[in-house]
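Question:
Write out your own:
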Amino acid sequence: MADHLCPPWAHVCHVLQSLEQRRANSVVTVDDDSGATLTGSQLVADVACLARGLEILCGVAPGDRVCIAALNSSAYVQWLLAVPAMGAILAPLNHRWSLGEAASAVQQVGATVLVVDAHMLPWWGKLRPLCPSLRLGVVVGVCDSSVHGWCQSGEHSSCPSEEHGSCRSKEHNSPLLPTLIPMNALIQAGRLAISEAGGIVQCRGVTTRHATPWPPATSTCPPAASSSFLHHLPLRSSPQQIALLCFTSGTTGTPKAAALSHTALITQSMAKMACAGYKHDDTFLHVAPLCHIGGISSLLAMLMACARNILVPRFLPHHLPRLLSLHRITALIAVPAMLTDLVGTCSGKQPGAPAPTFPLVRTLLVGGGAMSQSLQRQVEALFPCAQLMIAYGMTEAASSITFATLRDPAAAATCGSSPTPTSTASPASSPPPPPPPPPPPPPPPPPAASSSSSSPCFVGFPAPHVQVRIAPLPPEDPHPPRSHDNPHSPLPHPDLHSSLPPTDQSSPDHRNPSAHMPCPVVGEVLTRGPHVMGGYWGRPEETSAALSPDGWLHTGDMGWIDFSGQLWLLGRRKEMIKSGGENVFCAEVEEAVRAHPAVAAAAAAGVPDERMGEAVSVLLVLKPGWEWAGDGASCDGGDGNDGSATRAKRVSLTDLHAACQQHGLSRYKLPRVAVALPQGQSLPVTALGKVKRAAVRDAIVTAMQCGGQSARARL
C-alpha cells in the first residue's frame, strides 16, 4: 500500500492532531438532543483524560475489550477514540439487539468493561449476571449522584492515586471501587493524573513538562504544539493491531466480531474522503448509528476532514427536515429505508403544497441496499444540489468496497448539460479511466444465476487501494447464487454494447480495459487490501472460510465486473436478508418461528420491498389441527359444546411475532410477511433436503399477489 494513503504511524487517534491544529476553538461535535458541543481542543483533552482514567480507575490494559451500548452522541465519539488510544479494543453493541444477542456478543469478546448511556442503562443490571467477564460498568450522560453505588465523597473521583493503576487485581477487588462509574469521574481522574504527572490544569487544556514526541519523530506529520493533551495520548498499538471489533451476523445469525485494525479504519476513512470529497467546511448529519461500521467510518472520515459533526440519537423521519435546515447540513449517509421515510414525510407535510428541498446538501452517500429508480428521482428532487452516490460494502471490509456517483450537479454544470446519472467517481477521487475503445458487437448477457428475472445492481468502482476480483464458483458448489430478483433495481447497464474483462483475474483497481474482453462468468465477489479485517474474533474456522491464505475476503455476493472496471451485483450467495440496512439471516428467523407450537416447518426469504429493500418473510407448514388466521386474532379451538369439537386452532402473524420475541429475536428481524401452505404441502427442497430459497421467495410473492393465505405487518 502506498505510504501517502496510510503512513507507518497510522492510528485512529491521529485525527486529533488535525482537529487541534485546525479546529482548536471551532465546534467539532454537536449533540442535537441536548445542544452540547465540543471544540477540537476540548475533544482532544477529553479523549486523553478518558484514556488515562480507564487505566487508573478501571484497570483497562492494552488488548482488553470494552463494549459500548449507547445512542449517537459526542460521548460516543470520545469512547471511539479513547479506548484505542490506550491500546484497548472497542466493541460496539447494537442497541436494537435483544438481550440474548447482546449477552452473546459480550461473552464472545470477553469484555471487562461495559459502557452504557441513560437509554441503555437497564442492560448493565441484566448483562452482568450473564457475562462473567464484566467487572465494571461506565454510565454516560448521567450525573454522579444518580449512579447507584458511586460515592461522591470517596477518594476515587478526586484522587487517582498510584495504587489504583499499579495492580489490576487489587484495583478490581477493592471494596471501595463501585461497579458502575460515571464517565465524568473517569475524565476528572484522568485530568488530575495528567496534571500530577507534570502539567498545570487550565480548564480543558494542560501545559506539559514531560511530553514525548507524538506522532513518532520518524513520521511525516509535524509535531503538536507543546500546550496540548496530545502528548499524553499513549497510542499503545501498532497500525496492524486491532482497534475495533465490529459485530456482523454469522451464518447462524449469532453475532461475529470482525477484527479491524487501525490501518483498515484509516484506509477506509481516507477512501471516503477521496471518493465522496468531504471537506473541512462540511457539516455532516450522523443519522446512521455509530454501532455500525458505516456510521463509524463516516465519523472517522469527517474527523479526518476536520468537519463539523451533528449527532442524532435516533433516526426519526419527521425530525429530519428540521435537522437538515437547522444545522445547515451539507453531507450525510443514509440507507434506502431512511430516504423512503424522508420522502414520505416531506410529501405529506401539507396536502397540495410543494415538498421542501434541501439545496445546502452537497453529498448524499447511500449504502445498505439497492435504491429504486423512483426513489432516486424523489431523492434528487429533495436534494437538488447534492452529489448522489451509492456505496457497496460490508463490516468485514471496514465499510465501503466500491463507490459510484449516480448524479453530480456540479460536474453537469461544468459541462453545460443537465444532471444525468453517471458512473464516474467524484472529482476528489482518482483520475477517471481513459475512454473505452470502440465497442465491439454486443456480447451475450451475463449468465443469470438462477432465474431469468435477474436484475443486476450497479455499485461502481473499487475505492482507492482496494482490490476486487470475481471468483467463478466450482460446478459442484452447494450454494449456487440466486438472482437479485428486485424490480426496483437502481440503474440499467450503462453501456449495453461494451464487452467485459476476464473475471478470473484481478488488478489493483480494474481500470485498464483489455483489448480482447470475453463475456464474463458470474461468480463470487472477492476483495483484498489494507481495508480487510484480520479475522473473526475467537472463530478461527470461520476466519479461514472467509479469508484465503493470500488475503482475499469472500464477500458472499455474486456479480461481475464490466469492461471499465465497474462492479455489478446479482445477489447473495449467503442466505441473508438485507432489510432496512440491517442483516437478517434466514436461519435465525426460522428457528424463532418454529418456537411456536403451531409451526411444523418454516423457511425464510427476502421479498422486494420499496421501503426496506427486502422484507423479512416466512413460508409456513402448520401442524395438523392448526389453521392460519392471517393477521387476525388467534383461537384456541372449540370445546365441543357447539358441535365443533374438531375445529382447528388458529395462529396469526401476531402470534408468531410474540413467539419470536419470546425466543429472543430482535424486533427488526420479525417477519413482515407470512404465508401458510395448504395442508398436505411441504416446503420446496432439493434432493438433499436443502431449502430452495428462490422457490420459497416465489411462493411468497405469488401468494401476496393472489391474495392467498398471507399476512403482512408494518413494524
Remarks:
- Residues 579-712 form a domain with the GMP Synthetase; Chain A, domain 3 fold (CATH 3.30.300.30).
- Residues 384 and 434 are 29 Å apart (CA to CA).
- The first strand starts at residue 27 and ends at 31.
